[in-house]
Automatic annotation (TrEMBL):
Name listed for the protein in its UniProt record: E3 ubiquitin-protein ligase listerin
Location of the E3 ubiquitin-protein ligase listerin HEAT repeat region domain: 1464-1585, 1623-1671
Entry keyword annotation includes Metal-binding: yes
Superkingdom of origin organism: Eukaryota
Family: Belongs to the LTN1 family.
Listed Polar residues bias regions: 1-12, 296-312, 502-512
Catalytic activity as recorded in UniProt: S-ubiquitinyl-[E2 ubiquitin-conjugating enzyme]-L-cysteine + [acceptor protein]-L-lysine = [E2 ubiquitin-conjugating enzyme]-L-cysteine + N(6)-ubiquitinyl-[acceptor protein]-L-lysine
Domain E3 ubiquitin-protein ligase listerin ubiquitin conjugating: 1685-1767
Biased composition (Basic and acidic residues): 462-471
């Protein structure tokens, strides 16, 4: 039935259904006396005529509507006083539309907010608001209008309007003027009815069904209204709070006196009784003619003038209004002092009986139909119930039971008794149940006769309750028509008959009267308190205590024990005796599974025990006879027996302690009734406990707890105490006997299975009773004997049993005897366990070593010592199992109970030796990552983990390592924790944390002996670290050693300079040693640094050189981390500079000195640190230091250098060393320190230190301004060359040339190197040396020629306009150098590089100098040829050399514009290796060269193929280029060039450039040559994929082609999408290769992405280019020269149509390209075919497709082939017998294969 609709059934039918719903499965009810039936016809039905006569239609005049309430806007003239805008808003408040009302409330709220802002501004002192306070006055004036409209808005059916109205009303009260006006209106203006209506609706708003609305309404109600009690409380609060709070609460309020309170109470009472009347009064309807159509069924009539926007039926509205009214009543009764100010008699006499009846009937689901205005299906019944029950406690508190009983009419008590009792047990809502408990108990306490009254009502069939409904029934019957009246009469008659069918009217056999409420109470118990056991069961005892004997007799059921299996007897007993029926109802929830939760079961158990005691006490006290006691014993025995059964079977789940407490408390109360009753109850529990020892049930856990509570509750001297003591002793005896019997068996399987239960019982007994259990001597002796004799079996069965025995036996009253006995047992147990197999012993020891043992136990078993030592040895050796390591660790964490002290010392020695062995073997590889190195024969880091873990367990247990053993162990543990591991990989390993934890533990210990041990360990640590640092064979990086001790680890102080690193003198000795090279490691480095000599004396790397590199690297790491130390030790700067010098050379030339065993990244890091530290130390120059240094160096008396540690003393020392030892290494150091020295200083050094002078001059020229004396010095050097004899050219002349080159300025500067004449003289001197060299074998050598070439580079610009033989001499030197130098020879790279630079300089000068260009062109071809031959040498396999790369780059710059005549078809293969160079500049220039070489090679093949008539010429891609294309690039991750090193980037860029060169080969190639190239690429042996198989899976694979901007710098065109050209070139050149990859691709997602990208960015341009090529074909092409041929191009559809006309007949062929061309096949359609056979035409079509699809041809090529076939066919030529073609574009063998 839909909500809100009235049932069509009559009231009799509704009452019948209600009674059936409440009966359930309880005992039948007595039927009420039969009603006198109305006269009926023969068929027991009324005829239509009789029905019409009986139900005569009577005219009922309509109710006169209430007079409409006038609007104050019109009656008071406010419409003319208020602003029009506000009048409009106020008018809208009275509209019917809810949306209009809502907007009006919001607009009015804005007016109020503005008024409040004005009030705040006035309070803050703004003067402008004193005159302009119009809105506040307007709000005060319009207040009557709002009060008139608010009554309807407060009760409006739409929740939003109520909320807005409550908010606006609360905001109004914030306006002081409005509050004062409202107070004045309530006290002076308002009438009694107006005030009652306003306060009533306002109070109801505060208790609205919607919580949000109620909160807002309550806030305004509390803020404005108070009572006398509330006013006193407010005053008290004001005295206790601060001024701010007092200001807040100082607002005036309306105090409700008794008179308005009574009025408010009656308003709420009337609303509860007649909510429709309140609604009609607030919403009066205009007088309208009656409606034609009747109202809908289920709805009461709505005032016709009222049309609400929300659909709310009458029942919902009535429920909502009643909830608010009941809330008001609760507030009045709970928070006011109304009963203190008025007569109680007057107050309660004013409440009609109908009000109370309605309150209870409205919440009773079974009797809601008895009240005509209540719908039981209303959604607000629950809220009504909660509000009503909340008021009952205050009712009962304020009015004693006697007063209420006298004052309440008997009729009301009679009705309420039945309704309360019956509604209390059928309510299922949890919230209602929780609220109902207290009022129900108070009601039953105050009206104890309620059960009797209900029984009397039940005997009468509850007819009296129907009396109030008769009028309603008659009204309902009269309102129906004739047919409906007949049907209702029939239904009512049948309903009445059904109500009493099958109900016995006889009294029960024992004379008790049945009560419907009691039956529902039993059903309440059967349902587990209707779903609320925690709230319901505590009330059961109170309810039972109040049930009269007439309902629940005191006699006990006869002797018929209720066993759980006797179902028939139980059912019969439940039907015979009420107590049996009550107990059956109590057990019903357990049988139904409703007590599955522990809290529910606990509540049930407590209620059951209390009720059982109550029943027995009432029965025994009523008749204390032997027969009655026998019945009580049997009842107790049966109930306790079943209770125990349910507990042990776990059907009733309650905590053991709680169960025992409840049972013992129940037994105690039963014992107070009689000892014999206690014996019966206890025997019912004790006998199953003793019998359970032979079974496997849950009694073993519960019995000891129960016995313990019994012994703790009952004294030993009482009857109960004696009985309990005997039972406990019997139980203990039975447990030990059963356990001993089982352990004596020889069957181990039987022992393991059968001994578990008795041993568990014994353990539970010991845990429950504690050590006091062993006060019994017989039990103690028996238990000791069992444990000593069967120790192994007991520990195998249950370790907890052994631990419980050890714990409780050692704490017995005789403690010494207990500890002695447990030590004997423990020693026996360890011996038997250790004698077992290892796996068995470990499994048995595992739970023991981790358990809490008595502190007096000691390990005294030799067998156990041997087992432990053997396990430790296995763990150290790494051969032990995982459980062995765990067991040993647990034993060593608490060794005292398991092993002896001697065994412990042996184990400590084994562990120390193991750690020492590991450290000695692994320290040389400290910090080396195991993932990057293969260390054969070296122990792995994790191997020491178990040993360190055992050491930590032993140390944590309190064991002290002393003597040499301790010092060595401390040292090794420190090295394991802080020096050995590789940082980053082992930082999270447990063994590392164990080692550090051990070290922290040891340093935290105090004492002289401990400090002495730590000092010894510190010395040993320093000694070992220093030995590793200077060990040239160690793999450990020296920087890592410094990192380990910086900052110093805890507990040890290490100064690297004094403790680890060599001393100052030792560093100087190693530096001055002959094992270190004094010059450069490679002569080619002179090309990069002109100050270096071109010769080298590189020695073989020695031990000292590697040792020096390691120690200086460590020194650099230490000083870089501590710059303060670096400033105080400037002597170390010289060694750091030398280290940087060697590292820089090794980075530039890898084939030099191999004194470093680190990677290039580490060398780069070293250089960065050297630069940073050097800049820091040399950048802080004191004032006057420069002059001081120069003066001391130029002094003739040779004053010794300063030794004050300052920067000046360091510079002087380094410079004097350079003068005394003129080595490259020393002068590099001096160059770094003396770059600002004057020219005067260096002029004193040429004779003794030329290298140093060259270095200083270069530094001055490069970094300092041009000194005035430098030009003079430069001219002096040039003049001195003319006086050098040719024989001294290799000595004096070489030095002079190098000095002259060192003084040369930057070529781009304005400084003039030498005058022209001086330059000519220099050239003449060099010519003289070379001329003499031709006659003397010992003349000019390679070093002099290299130096002359360098000087010529600076002289060429000066001599470009000076004619003479010197230019021929320069070109002869160039040609000679190019012939004698090679890229493979590192010794000639310097000369080669200088020569190529000279060639480039001359070529640049020739561009602007015509005479020089004429002479240069004569010699240029020879130079270019020599350079070209030099470039052709492949040096990719040689070690990296920066000078070699520079020479190759210079050579490519020379020949990049080489004439095409100097290239041939072999140039490309000979120079493909340039793409693999590691220099991006070489790749860039090399690509331009190879691009031209590729065109030259293609041109050669085109010419050869054109004249080749026998197909002997095969066009192939060079194998050198194919080798690059077939090179694997690695995984996809390796192609992410942003995260790869530079060499990797160059490798990928070279690979891409190789593809570009391959595509260049196809440029201007004929069809035959193109086919040859492509077939060569597709050869099975050298198949190439245009896509890399790994990189193609990259999400944006085109980015792979765009790698490196150097490709974009090559001059290649970019497509419209901005991508680099390789992929575009591939689509244009070799589309068949792309399509091959498309067909083989299995990744659908990738394939879709490739196709979409290509069709979007590349295909449109390619299609456009193809069509343009067809449209713009030249006049000499086949398509233009063929007659009768017409070609049409359609750019929109991408289609080309060729038409050939023969004898007015047309052959037509159409070719259409797809949108993603060239990824998919083109469509060839034969539109018209005339004069050609089908086979021949299909062959032509196939040829067209193959040209484009298989042979990478263009659309023009396909149309040309078609044109030739058609022309030759109609010319009478003979076609090919295989393919029917007249024109072949492929070799014959390829056609045959096809």
């Amino acid at each position: 039935m839909a909500k809100g609709q009235k049932s069509s059934a009559t009231s009799g039918t509704r009452k019948k259904n209600a009674r059936k719903a409440t009966q359930g499965s309880v005992a039948p009810q007595p039927s009420p006396p039969p009603k006198q039936s109305r006269p009926k016809g023969a068929n027991h039905k009324l005829s239509k005529r009789e029905a019409r006569e009986q139900h005569k239609k009577v005219y009922i005049p309509p109710i006169k509507p209430a007079p409409p309430v006038l609007d104050p806007l019109d009656t008071t003239g406010l419409a003319h006083l208020l602003p029009p805008e506000l009048v409009v808003v106020l008018r809208a408040l009275g509209k019917k539309d809810a949306v209009t009302r809502g907007k009006a409330i919001e607009e009015l709220g804005k007016w109020v907010e503005d008024a409040i802002k004005e009030q705040a501004a006035r309070d803050s002192g703004h003067d402008r608001y004193e005159e302009e306070s119009g809105k506040t006055d307007m709000i005060v004036k319009m207040l009557p209008v709002w009060l008139h409209r608010s009554l309807v808005l407060f009760t409006h059916p739409e929740r939003r309007l109520r909320h807005l109205a409550a908010s606006l009303h609360s905001t109004l009260l914030r306006l002081n003027e409005a509050r004062e006006a409202l107070l004045a209106w309530t006290s002076e203006i308002a009438s009694q009815s107006e005030l009652e209506t306003l306060l009533g609706t306002w109070a109801m708003l505060s208790y609205d069904v919607d919580r949000g609305v109620a909160m807002v309404g309550m806030r305004s109600w509390v803020d404005f209204v108070t009572t006398a009690r509330g006013q006193a409380a407010d005053k008290q609060d004001e005295q206790c709070t601060g001024p701010q709070t007092r200001r807040t609460r100082s607002q005036p309020k309306m105090t409700l006196n008794p008179r308005p309170l009574i009025s408010l109470f009656r308003f709420a009472q009337d609303t509860v009784l007649d909510p429709q009347g309140l609604h009609t009064a607030l919403n009066p309807a205009p007088v309208l003619p009656p409606a034609v159509s009747p109202p809908q069924q289920g709805h009461k009539s709505v005032p016709q003038g009222k049309s609400e926007s929300v659909a709310e039926n009458d029942s919902d509205r009535a429920g909502r209004l009643r909830v608010g009214a009941l809330g008001v009543i609760r507030w009045i009764l709970g928070t006011s002092d109304l009963p203190l100010f008025c007569s109680r008699r007057d107050f309660f006499s004013s409440c009609p009986v109908r009000f109370y009846v309605y309150c209870w009937f409205s919440i009773d689901a079974a009797y809601s139909d008895n009240w005509p205005e209540v719908d039981s299906a209303s959604a607000t019944d629950l809220a009504v119930l909660t509000a009503l029950l909340s008021s009952l406690p205050f009712w009962s508190t304020l009015h004693p039971a006697a007063v209420l009983l006298r004052k309440l009419p008997a009729t009301l008590i009679r009705i309420l008794s039945t309704v309360v009792l019956r509604s209390a047990w059928v309510e299922t809502d949890i919230g209602v149940r929780a609220t109902l408990g207290a009022p129900l108990m108070i009601f039953l306490r105050d009206y104890s006769q309620a059960w009797t009254i209900d029984m009397e009502n039940a005997s009468k069939g509850y007819d009296d309750l129907d009396a109030n409904d008769k009028d309603t029934e008659s009204d309902d019957s009269d309102s129906n028509s004739g047919a409906e009246s007949e049907t209702d009469s029939e239904s009512e008659g049948n309903g009445d008959d059904d109500d009493f069918t099958g109900v016995s009217t006889e009294s029960p056999p024992n004379g008790q009267l049945l009560s419907e409420a009691y039956t529902e109470f039993l059903q309440f118990l059967e349902l587990g308190c209707s779903g609320s056991p925690p709230e319901g069961y505590p009330l059961v005892v109170v309810v039972l205590a109040g049930i009269p004997k007439s309902i629940l007799p005191t006699t006990l059921p006869p002797v018929s024990p209720l066993g759980p299996g006797d179902k028939e007897e139980n059912e019969q007993a439940s039907n015979i005796h009420p107590i049996s029926q009550l107990l059956t109802s109590f057990w019903a929830p357990l049988d139904a599974g409703l007590l599955d939760r522990r809290t529910v079961a606990s509540s049930w158990l407590k209620a059951f025990s209390e009720c059982l005691v109550l029943i027995v006490r009432r029965g025994v006290h009523a008749e204390n006879t032997t027969h009655v006691k026998d019945d009580a014993k049997n009842l107790l025995a049966s109930q306790f027996s079943r209770l125990w059964t349910e507990l042990v079977t776990k059907r009733l789940r309650v905590e053991e302690t709680e169960v025992a407490a409840v049972i013992v408390r129940t037994a105690d109360r039963i014992g107070k009734i009689g000892d014999d009753l206690f014996d019966a109850s206890f025997d019912a529990l004790c006998q199953p406990i003793l019998d359970a020892l032979h079974t496997t049930d849950g009694t073993l856990d519960l019995a000891p707890v129960l016995f313990y509570h019994f012994t703790s509750t009952f004294a030993l001297g009482t009857h109960a105490g004696q009985k309990i003591r005997g039972a406990v002793e019997a139980y203990m005896r039975r447990v030990t006997e059963v356990l001993e019997t089982v352990l004596r068996s020889s069957d181990q399987v039987l022992i393991a299975n059968a001994a578990k239960d008795p041993l568990t019982a014994l353990v539970k007994l010991m845990d429950t009773f504690g050590p006091s259990l062993f006060d019994d001597q017989s039990f103690t002796s028996c238990t000791d004997a069992i444990f000593v004799a069967h120790s192994l079996s007991l520990v195998q069965v249950s370790t907890s049993g052994v631990l419980a025995y050890l714990g409780h036996r050692s704490k017995s009253s005789d403690q010494s005897q207990g500890q002695l006995q447990t030590q004997v047992f423990w020693t026996e147990l360890l011996g038997t366990v250790a004698s077992s197999p290892t796996k068995v012993a470990l499994s048995l020891l595992s739970p023991l070593v981790g358990a809490s043992l008595p502190i007096h136990l000691r390990g005294a078993s030799p067998t156990m010592d041997d087992l432990t030592a053997r396990l430790v040895s296995n763990v150290i050796a790494g051969v032990g199992l995982g459980n062995e390591e765990v067991a040993v660790a647990k034993i060593l964490s608490a060794p005292a109970p398991f092993i002896s002290f001697g065994c412990l010392a042996t184990i400590a020695s084994m562990l120390s030796n193991s750690v020492a062995t590991f450290v000695n073997a692994r320290l040389r590889f400290a910090g080396v990552s195991e993932s990057t190195t293969g260390l054969d024969g070296v122990p792995d880091l994790p191997e020491v983990g178990p040993t360190v873990g055992l050491v930590r367990e032993l140390a944590d247990s309190g064991y002290e390592f002393t003597g040499d053993l301790g010092a060595e162990l401390y040292t090794n543990v420190f090295l394991v924790g802080y020096a050995v591991p590789y940082q980053g990989e082992a930082s999270g390993d447990k063994w590392l944390e164990d080692a550090k934890a051990l070290w922290r533990l040891w340093i935290s210990q105090e004492g002289d002996r401990q400090r002495e041990m730590m000092d010894i360990a510190g010395s040993l640590v320093k000694e070992k670290l220093k030995s590793v640092l200077v060990d040239e064979k160690a793999e450990t990086r020296s920087e890592y050693i410094i990192q380990c001790i910086t900052p110093s680890p805890p507990g040890i102080r290490i100064d690297p300079l004094s403790d680890i690193l060599p001393s100052h003198e030792e560093f100087d000795t190693m530096l001055d040693s002959s094992s270190l090279p004094s010059s450069t490691t490679s002569p080619s480095l002179a090309l990069l640094d002109p100050t270096l000599p071109t010769s080298s004396d590189t020695p073989t790397p020695s031990v000292i050189s590697r040792k020096y590199a390691r120690t200086v690297s460590a020194l650099l790491a230490h000083l870089a981390a501590s710059r303060t130390v670096a400033r105080s030790n400037l002597w170390a700067l010289r060694h750091i500079l030398v280290l940087g010098f060697y590292a820089n050379e090794y980075l530039r030339v890898e084939d030099g000195l191999a004194m470093f065993d680190v990677t290039r990244d580490h060398l780069v890091d070293i250089l960065e640190k050297v630069k940073s530290l050097t800049t820091y130390l040399l950048g802080r120059v004191e004032d006057g230091m420069h002059a001081k240094v120069v003066n001391m160096l130029m002094s003739k008396d040779g004053v010794a250098a300063l030794e004050d540690g300052s920067l000046a003393s360091f510079v002087i020392s380094v410079t004097r060393r350079a003068k005394n030892t003129d080595s490259v290494r020393i002068r590099r150091c001096s160059a770094s320190c003396c770059s600002t020295c004057s020219v005067m200083l260096q002029r004193t050094m040429p004779i003794c230190a030329p290298q140093t002078t060259i270095t200083i001059l270069s530094a001055i020229t490069a970094h300092a301004p041009e000194p005035p004396k430098l030009d003079r010095y430069r001219n002096e050097l040039a003049a001195s060359l003319t006086g050098v004899h040719p024989g001294a050219a290799s000595t004096t002349g070489l030095i002079a040339l190098r000095l002259l080159a060192a003084t040369a300025p930057d070529p781009d500067s304005d400084v003039v190197f030498l005058p022209q004449q001086r330059a000519v003289n220099v050239m003449k001197a060099c010519q003289a040396w070379v001329a003499a060299d031709e006659d003397d074998e010992d003349g000019v050598d390679e070093d002099v020629e290299s130096a002359m070439t360098l000087v010529f580079f600076y002289l060429a610009p000066i001599l470009q306009n000076v004619p003479g033989s010197h230019w021929d001499f320069i070109w002869d030197v160039i040609e000679n150098n190019l012939e004698s130098c090679s890229l493979e020879d590192s010794a000639t790279l310097t000369t080669l590089g200088r020569t190529l630079r000279l060639v480039i300089a001359i070529d640049d000068l020739a561009l602007t100098n015509k005479p020089l260009r004429a002479k240069w062109d004569e010699r240029k071809t020879t130079v270019l040829g020599l350079t070209k031959d030099m470039i052709a040498v492949n040096t990719v396999a040689m070690p990296y050399s920066e000078p070699r790369t520079l020479c190759r780059q210079l050579a490519l710059s020379v020949i990049q514009d080489m004439p095409s005549e100097m290239m041939n078809e072999k140039t490309l293969p000979s120079m493909c290796h340039l793409l693999g160079d590691q220099s991006p500049e070489v790749q860039r220039i090399g690509y331009h060269l190879l691009h031209n070489a590729a065109r030259k090679r293609t041109e050669h093949y085109v010419i050869e193929a054109g004249v080749d008539t026998e197909d002997m010429v095969t066009s192939e891609i060079p194998p050198e280029l194919l080798a690059i294309l077939q090179h694997s690039l690695g995984s996809r991750e390796a192609l992410d060039l942003d995260e790869q090193p530079v060499p990797r980037n160059k490798e990928v860029s070279g690979y891409l450039l190789a593809w570009m060169i391959t595509f260049d080969l196809f440029i201007d190639a004929s069809m035959k040559v193109r086919s040859g190239y492509f077939n060569h690429m597709r050869s099975p042996r050298r198949y190439l994929s245009i896509f890399h198989p790994q990189c193609i899976r990259h999400p944006w694979f085109v980015q792979w082609w765009k790698t490196g901007i150097q490709i974009g710098c090559l001059g290649c065109r970019r497509n419209s999408s901005g991508d680099c050209p390789p992929y575009h070139r591939a689509l244009l050149t070799v589309p068949a290769l792309i399509r091959s990859w498309i067909s083989d691709c299995t990744d659908k997602q990738l394939l879709t992405r490739v196709i979409d990208y290509t069709s979007s960015y590349f295909s449109p341009g390619i299609i456009k280019a193809e069509l343009a090529q067809v449209r713009q074909s030249g006049a000499s092409s086949e398509l233009s020269s063929t007659e009768n041929l017409t070609v049409k191009v359609s750019p929109a559809s991408g289609e080309v149509t060729a038409s050939y006309t023969v004898d007015e007949q047309t052959l037509e062929l159409s070719i259409r390209m797809p949108s993603d061309w060239p990824l998919h096949r083109l469509e060839v359609r034969d539109t018209k075919m005339v004069g050609v056979s089908g086979d021949k035409w299909r062959a032509w079509i196939l040829g067209v497709q193959q040209v484009v699809w298989q042979q990478n041809g263009r659309i023009v090529d396909a149309l040309t082939l078609f044109t030739k076939n058609v022309t030759l066919h109609f010319s009478g030529q003979v076609e090919c017998a295989i393919c029917y073609s007249y024109a072949l574009v492929s070799p014959p063998w390829l056609v045959a294969v096809a």
